Amino acid sequence: MSANSLAYSEQSGAEAAVELGQETTPTSSAGGAAFGLFSTDFKKNEDLKEMLESTKESLKLEAMKRVVGLIARGKNASELFPAVVKNVASKNIELKKLVYVYLVRYAEEQQDLALLSISTFQRALKDPNQLIRASALRVLSSIRVPIIVPIMMLAIKEAATDLSPYVRKTAAHAIQKLYSLDPDQKEHLVEVIEKLLKDKSTLVAGSVVMAFEEVCPERIDLIHKNYRKLCNLLMDVEEWGQVVIINMLTRYARTQFVSPWRQDGVFEENSEKAFYDSDEEKKEGAAQTKPYVMDPDHRLLLRNTKPLLQSRNTAVVMSVAQLYWHLAPKHEVSVVTKSLVRLLRSHREVQYVVLQNIATMSIQRKGMFEPFMKSFYVRSTDATHIKTLKLEILTNLANEANISTILREFQTYVKSQDKAFAAATIQAIGRCATNISEITDACLNGLVLLLSNRDETVVAESVVVIKKLLQTQPSQHSDIIKHMAKLRVPVPMARASILWLIGEYCEHVPRIAPDVLRKMAKTFTSEEDIVKLQTVNLAAKLYLTNSKQTKLLTQYILNLGKYDQNYDIRDRTRFIRQLIVPNEKSGALSKYARRILLAPKPAPVLQSAFKDRDRFQLGTLSHTLNSKATGYLELSDWPDVAPDQSVRNVEVVEAVRINTRSDCYYRRDEDHSEEKRLCSHSYLVFCSRSDEGQKNGRLEKSGSGSGSASASSEESSSAESSSESGSDSDSGTDQKRNTKPKPIKKVRDVIHVVHCFCLSRLFPVQVSSPVFVPVRPHELLHRMTGKGLAAQYHFPRQPCIYGDHMVSVQLTFNNHGDHALEDIHISEKTSTGQSIHCFRPIGESGSAAVLGRTCSKTERFSVSIQPAVGELLLPVTMTEQDFSREQGKLVGMNESSATITMAPETVSSQPVSKKVVSVANVGVVPSGQDNVHRFAAKLVSSGTLVLVCVVQKDSSAQLTVNTERTVVGSMLLRELQTALSSAP
Amino acid sequence: MIHSLFLINNAGDIFLEKHWKSVISRSVCDYFFEAQDKAGEPDNVSPVIRTPHHYLINIYREKIFFVSVIQTEVPPLFVIEFLHRVAEMFQDYFGECSEVAIKDNVVIVYELLEEMLDNGFPLATESNILKELIKPPTILRSMVNTITGSSNVGETLPTGQLSTIPWRRAGVKYTNNEAYFDVVEEIDAILDKSGTTVFAEIQGVIDACVKLSGMPDLTLSFMNPRLLDDVSFHPCVRFKRWESERVLSFIPPDGNFRLMSYHVNAQNLVAIPVYVRQNINFFETGSSGRVDITVGPKQTMGKTVENVIVTIHMPKVVLSANLTATQGTYTYDPVTKILVWDIGKLNQQKLPNLKGSLSLQSGAPKPEENPSLNIDLKIQQLAISGLKVNRLDMYVEKYKPFKGVKYVTKAGKFQVLTVPSHV
To answer: Which GO terms describe its biological process (chain A) (predicted)?
Structure first.
């Protein structure tokens, strides 16, 4: 610890000299933390407290650095909480960060004090700088204090609609934190996840999928609409997100697509075991007649993940490998081999995990890794667990063709200095010998040679393996048994194995067996228990087959066993005696003694330890541990029949209603002033229903419909590349669905509400919900000019779901004609300085169908939407004080006022506000005086504040509008003037 | 995902802990210590350990165990890869990833860990972004900080995190614009006693040091891209261009980075640059053995083989070595039983030789396996596979950069087997 303190004093600032006295006082050893706490550390904390409370920034920083040092070493620094938390609002970034570190560490323990800091974060959540917003959310959500759950929830909802993808990413992380703090919030959190899943930013994708996996992995339905987008974004998502998304998509694909494995038969290379249950195999046979066609979405996933095999991140490569293993047609899986083998060049830990996965794969598909056999050769420098895994794989790969090479390699391993590894090699040889009958004899001979090895473990292992091998074909190998009988192996397990072998096959070695028993009888008392048990067994078996020679010996051994210290042996002895020595007490059992003791025993099956690991998804922790880890999600079996594919079809969010009303959203560009270009000219195109016309219309639709709609809605540059690919897939699906009726999307009210939160961040005032006013429709197209089609628009005064710089406009179409209209859409925009988020073409406009008319016409009409200036506002709420303060700032140029004569009906206060609100979308500011009415709003496009004040004096009134945008101000003034002076 | 991280030194001291979720008592490490005891060698510790309530995933690097605590299912490679990134980041920041360096810079370490993970999920792992957030310590900066009381935390907030090119920061400016590429190849080989190649392959990497202003867009092409069999890229490389044209097109990160690593096509015969004639004998009687090793150049394409080092892990019974080297020096460590012969440059005319006797523990049986030799070497100006960079072009930016390509061949896992003498 003293070394540490010295290190600190090097770093420390000008105060180093002052502290030096304290630093050099002998402190307790680093290990005795608990003791140190009460003695010197406590004293140190006292001076830390002083430093934290000082006014000098550098002193505070120095103190915080030392506090963080304490935390890092696991020391308790919680008593400093009050002193530290005061600095949470510091201007110094590093100090602030260190305070955050401290806060996150101790907030759980000091919940009440931690609440002091919350307001700071709430303020920071509204900071114009996205990174500050994000970091505030990060810390706020990391404070594990249950009381602030509602605040966190609100902050997350707000951040989820933030303009900055970085903040939204942070929100996705916060979801998981809140969920672990309070699982009851799940329902609300799932809503936020659903929204974030729609996000097109590559930054957000990985994090939100992570949140999805943690909070609601069972809600697979949320993925449908985002599936194609995720596949297309995958290449550009950061590495860690890729891993999470690929794993999730693997699970998804297994529930949504049919098995691609039907045609190529099940595991042509490994007939002994099928991956799937036998009943599925039968089904496969039946299904052979119908050729399998892969779902294009299934192919999309495989195609888009393949390049990631070239990633430098080993986790990404592994996750793609497991995806191919679980999802790709059999003949395609081998593309991952090379990449997996490449990973073996990486760190030891990586090798360990990759080798485990290869071991599982190589059981089922030898062919995949056989060409790379040499990569699995063991090196003397490998760690033991790596060696064993390589051995496992080599054994799995062994076949008639390569066994001689492998055995030669094994021979060098047996001589290894690492004896545990040598023993494992012998086991492996045994496995090869049983699997490949051609080499059984060669292996046996090799193993017998090893019996003369000097090392006990090698010999013992050989005996055990030989025993297993002999069980398969004992009659031919009596000479080996004889050889073994002569062995003097000190390892008990091996001795026991030899005794068992001789007992079992005593008929093959009739002359030696009694002699072995005689020798064992001599040393019986000094043997290990396991050997004693086998000696008793041997005696019993010999007694049954060759009682003439061994009767006395057996009696002797049974007597020894009777007085053994171990009760297992005493029990066994008593049992054997009753069984084989007939007397009057022994019942019917002794008749069957021979059948009991000398029953033919099945040969043990030597198989890989990785045999049953394929029940786990490859690459998972559960697979590595070979047991189900907490939170493991099962990979489901392929469905027999593919679920509806159309669920993945994506449409641009739109609001087509059955009565052919549609919402149209447009956004204003900020660099243009609003007042001049308040109208936008658009052409409405529709074609009459006919065969030809239908074709025409469709073509236009797929071109201008989805493409332009999504392109105009994007504004962040980071999303641009993704939107391209997104719209590609959109139009692709469009064409496919040509003949199907278009599903109708409903407007999501949730989004509207949440957008209010979103706007509130831009300005330090709360956006309030608009006051209800009766709808005032404006005519867009008259039915006469429109040849039967009439269109109206009004401003629903709801926040736009496409972006908070846009104003929503609701269009209503009515067909007054006598034939159906189709494919109504906005074809081109001659708007200046505005961007319109188009609605999707409306498929059909229902009317009385006139059959038999074959006219094909495409009509276009020029229309214009002229929004009143009052509709370009969003109401905000503020207090009277705030209002006066803001008004005080907006004087001179920014103020326009007029005196008006009010209509007599409007003298009382109620009608005044009603009138103002009907003209402009403003919020009412509570007022103390009866004759003064205040209204506040802001411009949707720029967020500029607009303040309206009406001061009544008898029948006349003073009307004032304050805003930075003077033109807006004067226009609004004029409109209000007309509204207020006119009769209701 | 990653719940907590403990850094443990070889002596078993937990010298740093960091929690990203609620605090987990350090007593969880007892399970790790138990596994460590069982494993003996640090390398033998299983990377994944199960405890009743947690899973411990650990890596061992630079004599430090990075032990992370996991609570739920997560791909183990995800954690392992991340831990290695952490170690590399320490290396990058402090020049070494050692206990001393970490303890000296504990505050920076903490700030780094805080930025790298949020709620256990990786947030910023790109060195470029982190260096903007937290400035690496330099002697000059720490002096300035001491005097002015300023800090290591970046005043400006990084932009890279928000752009589509997260690996490069905006507004890079250099007076000398330079781009260097090192093509480094390693030969992995196993030779048997007669010198026959049992197994050989070439693995290569291209490390780059790019110091270019602005947002340059580079294209690197090879004379013989067919040689490359299996490749992996830094995320900056456009994979589509590689697929179609076999060129590397990328906007480089600023500073040092690994552009690609590759594996040379297995069909090509690997040139083995050296040969080794060796004879290691242990005698049945007299507790002694003999060593006679000669190293000579083989296929070197006319270049000199440098930095040749022969390392032998002797059997446990070897007590000491009494040898003479005609070139270079040798050392034998009786504790680790490692014999190291540092030869240096290989001379065609006078081949270096190491000869002498070994003394064994008396009474012990003679070792049954002869040790294998591990060889280290280096050849400048040569990529043993024959890979050659054709040209490097720069787009977008106007200035003329200085470009350089360097080739080096090294021995990777280069092993020479010795057949047991009693056969």
So the answer is: intracellular protein transport; vesicle-mediated transport
